[in-house]
Amino acid sequence: QVQLVESGGGLVQAGGSLRLSCAASGRTFSSLAMGWFRQAPGKDREFVAAITRSGTYVGDSVKGRFTVSRDNAKNTVYLQMNSLKPEDTAVYYCAARSQPWGPITGPGDYDYWGQGTQVTVSS
Question: How far apart are CA 82 and CA 65, in angstroms?
Fold first, then answer.
């Protein structure tokens, strides 16, 4: 079992930055594939970024603005969000998967989820 707790969400003006954190517990963190998703009201959950043993990946809608990283010593994964836009407004979720290999862009690819943190970008 893995527990995930996100933090760092909030209200920011367009063009600003936020860094989300996701603290994991319950399993060897370094062995987990980690992902970030977001969900806006009335929309499907959208892949944002992931970090695995193979490298880092970001979705097309955030490429060049968002980066994902991890600190295995702190059991934490980060999502650095720059040049934020109003359309980035959503609840952001951290996800983890025990299997280090495989697809990483679908919500069904992950075993564990955090409770989510709200990000609101004002215009």
Answer: 5
7-11, 27-31, 95-99: least confident range: 27-31
The Cα–Cα gap between 121 and 17 comes to 10
Residue 8 sits at the vertex; the CA angle it makes with 42 and 43, to the nearest 5 degrees, is 10
User: What are 106's two structure tokens?
Assistant: 């679908």
The first and second tokens of residue 61, run together, are 């809608």
Q: Write a three-state SS string for the chain.
A: CCEEEEECCEEEECCCCEEEEEEEECCCHHHCEEEEEEECCCCCCEEEEEEECCEEEECHHHCCCEEEEEECCCCEEEEEECCCCHHHCEEEEEEEECCCCCCCCCHHHCCEECCCEEEEEEC
Q: How far is CA 36 from CA 46, 114, 123, in A?
A: 9, 10, 24
Query: At residue 79, does pLDDT exceed 90?
Result: yes
